TrEMBL record, chains A, B:
Domain of life: Bacteria
Domain HTH crp-type: 147-221
The protein, known as: Crp/Fnr family transcriptional regulator
InterPro entries: cNMP-bd_dom, HTH_CRP
Residue runs in coiled coils: none
One Pfam match: HTH_Crp_2
Length: 245, 245
DNA sequence: CGTTCGGTTGATTAGAATCAACTAATGTGG
DNA sequence: CCACATTAGTTGATTCTAATCAACCGAACG
């Protein structure tokens, strides 16, 4: 297999961008898409496992994740980034890494700020994203604080499934989820072995499976039950729109 | 003691507001403070334990916290709100409750949005707050995922101490921290008994004490060691300023 | 002056980490 | 194309951390 087999190039123009309807710039009407060209400062294709050093970018294809190392050398995965997500790599402790081969569109922080300064709609879109991020972190906090291993796994699978569905990926019965068990474990505060056992239990009970990069939901009711799924939509205070979550 | 003994009234004008330097409106120069009067839609004084139903408000005095109930009736505390913090009570599952007697300034969501639409600086200030919230949630996620009980307690105490210091409360050796052990436990995903034992260990080892609403830091080095304290400042991508965190 | 709430302590149990193999894929170079 | 190496997933045994259960104490309060 060629070294670049899975690298998905980006379209040259934002007008043709397939993830824009789910991304920061969704609020820019098609007629004005030309104006955002100056904000883009480049594109990048990276391989699974590569560290991403760019400051602000929009995922185009593939998955990435943000993580941080603890003092004793273990890893906490803080969030997963899907196509359309705006990602900021800040200077602090957190690292960003490509989970699969991935491509993304790098933005100029400066010009983005400037543009938001005279386009409140774009600023609101940015705020929406942050609000949703916070809501997701809160959900995860509840998982790590009060759910057992099976519940945590179930909840994360439902979260990812929902996010994928909202951007047109997968279907009600499953979706492409390229996570390794180690990612699950590190996101959920579990050991790999225990994450494995939780997953095995879901499989044995005919609730869901995660195999070869594919999530299959066999019994949604049971999965939601395990997860203590609130079903909650997470709309931001300043977010009347109902786009990608 | 009178029923209203601890209720701190707000000043009539934003110009005299003692928490504004740490709050959303810090970016409005003193000369233009008059303009934000229209955004305020009222003030409220509440007693410890009261549920807060207002949508968007700035804490003026006292503490509050946001929490959510799990299916099995337990509680997860998602965040603590200190004077100067902007708090949004969204429709979803999360509740906001006064932790002490508290007073705050209610904002009109609509007029706030409108104002931010023509004042990018205010929008940025709002974004800064959200970014910091997210960073704090990520820190906490790391605690719940990868730190043991003592580490979680130590980390939260340091976080709160830092936030208080930055808004002029307390001193390097301690601060007023009105948390009950149950709040600690519910924020950190521990049972009350276990939170108690962790606190007892800190006390026994001369690291820190939390007693009668007061945090005393006896050995900061040791506390940071336990917490795996990264020390990291958490500046937002769009946040060049270095105000309250 | 009894009640309640917050805090403390001990005994027991349960859930998850750790340690230790081992198997199944995936991938690579000869 | 095969042999070997590496990564991902699986399983069992053991240890440990934290939850649960059960009292009990002390201070604040009404």
């Amino acid at each position: 297999m060629s070294r670049n087999a899975n690298l998905t190039p980006l379209p040259g123009s934002c007008a043709a961008c397939t993830v824009r309807p789910f991304a920061l710039f969704r609020v820019i009407p098609q007629a004005r898409v030309g104006e955002i060209a100056r904000i883009r400062s480049g594109v990048r294709l990276v391989r699974a496992g590569d560290a991403i050093m760019d400051g602000v970018f929009t995922m185009y294809a593939g998955w990435a994740f943000t993580w941080t190392a603890t003092n004793d050398g273990r890893r906490q995965v803080l969030d997963f980034h899907l196509p359309g997500d705006l990602v900021e790599r800040t200077e602090d402790a957190a690292e960003v890494e490509a989970l699969t081969d991935a491509s993304f569109c790098i933005l100029s922080k400066e010009r983005l700020c400037a543009f938001m300064g005279h386009d409140p709609g774009l600023a609101l879109s940015y705020v929406e994203g942050l609000t949703r991020d916070r809501a997701r972190m809160r959900e995860r906090l509840t998982s790590l604080g009060r759910r057992d291993a099976a519940g945590r796994v179930a909840h994360l699978l439902l979260e990812l499934h929902g996010r994928l569905l909202r951007r047109g990926g997968g279907d009600p019965r499953g979706a492409a989820v390229p996570l390794k068990q180690a990612h699950l474990a590190d996101a959920l505060g579990l050991s790999v072995e225990h994450a494995n056992r939780a997953l095995a239990a879901l499989r044995k009970d005919g609730v869901a499976t995660l195999h070869k990069g594919r999530l299959e939901i066999l019994n949604r009711k049971a999965l939601e039950e395990l997860a203590g799924w609130g079903g909650g939509t997470q709309g931001g205070m300043l977010a009347p729109t109902t786009l990608a979550g």
